Amino acid sequence: MALKILSAVSEIAPWIKTGGLGDVAGSLPAALRRRKQDVLVLVPAYPALRQACPEAQTVADIPALAPELPACRLLSAEAGGLPLLLIDCPELYDRPGNPYLDASGNNQPDNDRRFGLLSRIAALLGQADSPLGWQPDVVHLHDWQSALAAAWLHVGGGAASVLTIHNIAFPGNFDRSAMWGLGLPDSLWRFDGVEYHGHFSFLKAGLQFATRLTTVSPTYAREIHDETFGYGFAPLLRHRSAQLSGILNGIDTDVWNPRTDPALAQTYDARRLTLKRENKAALQAQLGLEVDDKLPLFGVVSRLTEQKGLDLLLTLGDGVATHLPAQIALLGAGEKWLEAGFRELASRHPGRIACVFGFSEELAHRIEAGADIFVMPSRFEPCGLNQMYSLRYGTPPVVRHTGGLADTVVDCNERTLADGSASGFVFAEPTAHELWLALERAAQTWRYNTLWRRLQQNGMRRDVSWERAADAYLTLYESAVGERRRERGG
Ligand code: ADP
Ligand code: GLC
Question: Is 105 left (phi over 0), alpha (psi -120 to 50) or beta?
Fold first, then answer.
C-alpha cells in the first residue's frame, strides 16, 4: 500500500533555490511519486511559488497557533507535476529574493517565526486531527528550517518523523525567549531537548526527537560522529547512532542531461564527446576567455563559503593561470571577501580567469558542459550535487576526499583505470599544496586524449539517478512508521 508522505522544506527547485537542498526537495518527491507513493510537499508561499501556481486553491484556514505564529491559509497547488501545499502568510513570506537573507545579505530578523510556522504546520498536519483530513504516515523534515516539527510531534503524538541533515553547520539557533512565542512548552528547555549551548536550536530539536535521522551520504554520516565535522552535535549523534543512516542523493537526470540540455551551445553524449568541445569554445567566448582548445579549462559553480574550500583555489589562481597554464571559469555567490579575491584574480589574468558573481541556472549548465575539469575542494561536503552533474557531463571533477565527494568520485590511478572505475581526481587534506598537485595531475592527464575519454565515459556511465535513493528512503520511512506504531503500542 502507498505510504502517505509529507515533505516539509524551505526551498524547492526550480522555483526557489539557494543550493542543493532545493534540488533534493524537488526531485526526491518526484522519484517517490514514480513509485506510486502519496506525497505532498509543504513549503512557504514565497512570491516565486505564488507566481508559479496561479491556480492555487485554499484548502484550510489555520488560526494563530501561538503568540508569534500568525494565522495563515494552506493552498493546494500543482507545479511541475508535484502536489504542493503552500503556507500563505504574506506577513512572513511575501518578501523578494532569498528565503533566508534580506537584501543586504543578513539573516531575516524573524527567521524563528518564518520557519517556526513551517515546522508547526508540518507537525499539525501530522496529527490525527489534521485540518486537511489527510494524515501522513511520515513527515520528512529537511535541515533546521523544518526540524522543529519533530519536537511538536514528540509532544503531541502523530506521524513518524524523518529528519534529513543536509548540512549540520547550520543549527538554526535563537534566543530561549523565542520558544514561548512559538508556543513550545518550557519543559523542552533541557540538554536532551531543544537547548544547545545556551541557545534554542531548531536542529537540535530534530536531532533529539525525530524517529529517524538521515544524512545525504554514508561518509558524511560517519564523519559527523566526530567533533570536527559534528559542529557540537557529535555526542548526540553518537547517542542516536542506531537511528542515523546515510543515503546518497541522486540528481534530476532530466534537468541535467547533456543529450537534451537546452542551455548548451551543443548537446552531446558519451558516444559523441567530440561535440562537447563546442561548448568549451562557446563558454570561453561568452566569458571573455581566450578561445583556445590547447588550455585546460577548470569550472567552478558554488556558494562562496569557507565550506567549499575555494579560498584554496584563490591562493593558487595566479599559478593556475601562468604556470600550469590553464583557465578558470567560476560562477558563485557568497562571502564578500571571496568575491573580492576572485574579482581581483580575474582582473590580473584577463583571458585566463573569468568570474561571474550571482546566481544563474543557465550559466551553471554551460560551465558543467564547457569546462574540461570541475573543481570542488570542499572542507566538508554532506553530499554535493555538482560533482555528480560533472560526472554526467563528461567533466571529470577534482574533489577532496570528504562526505559525498568521497562516495561519488573515484581517483584516477593505474588500478582504477584498469578496473574501469576511475572518474576524477581526489586529494586528502584541505591544503593549497594538495589541491595544486591534484589540479596538476588533472591538467596533465587531460592531454592524453584516449585516457581522458575513458575517464569521461566512466563518469558518464555511473548511475546518479534518484531511483536507488528513493528505494532506500521508502525502506527507511517504513521502519520509522513501524517504530512509531510500536511506541504508541499499536
Ligand atoms: P550546496 O547545497 O552546499 O550549495 P550542492 O553541490 O549540493 O551544494 O548544490 C549546489 C546547487 O546549487 C547545485 O545545483 C548548483 O548548480 C547550484 N548553484 C550553486 N551556486 C550557484 C550559482 N551561483 N548559480 C547557479 N547555481 C548555483
Ligand atoms: C547541503 C550540502 C550539500 C548537499 C545538499 C543537498 O547544502 O552542503 O553537500 O548536496 O545539501 O543534500
Answer: left
Q: Select from 320, 373, 365, 366 the least CA-distant residue to 342.
A: 320
- For CA atoms 465, 301, 173, 241, the dihedral sign is positive
Residue 253 C-alpha to ligand 1 middle, in angstroms? 16
Please tell me the distance between residue 12's alpha carbon and the centre of ligand 2 in angstroms.
Answer: 13
* Bridge partner list, 38: 4
How many degrees, rounded to 5, is the angle at CA 275 between CA 420 and CA 423?
Answer: 20
Report how far ligand 2's centroid is from the alpha carbon of 402 (Å). Answer: 13
Delimit the domains of the chain by residue range: 4-250+467-488, 273-461
What is the end-to-end Cα distance of the chain in Å, rounded? 18
40 φ, ψ to 5°? -135, 140
Nearest residue (by CA) to ligand 2, atom 10, is 384
Tell me how far apart the alpha carbons of residues 119 and 101 are, in angstroms, rounded to a whole number.
19
DSSP class of residue 12 equals B
Least confident segment among 89-103, 209-223, 281-295: 89-103
Q: What are phi and psi of 299, to 5 degrees?
A: -110, 145
Cα 102-107-109 angle, rounded to 5 deg? 90
Global pTM? 0.96
In terms of DSSP H, where are the helices of 380-448?
386-392, 403-408, 414-418, 432-446
Phi and psi for 306 in degrees, rounded to 5? Answer: -50, -45
Using DSSP, state whether 42 is helix, strand or coil. Answer: strand
pLDDT category of residue 104 using cuts at 50, 70 and 90: confident
Alpha helices in 240-275 (DSSP H): none
Q: Which fold has domain 4-250+467-488?
A: Rossmann fold (3.40.50)
What is the tens place of the pLDDT at every residue in 408-425?
999 999 999 999 999 999
* Residue closest by Cα to atom 19 of ligand 1: 302
299-336: pLDDT as tens digits: 999 999 999 999 999 999 999 999 999 999 999 999 99
Identity of the residue numbered 330: L
Tell me which fold the domain 273-461 belongs to: Rossmann fold (3.40.50)
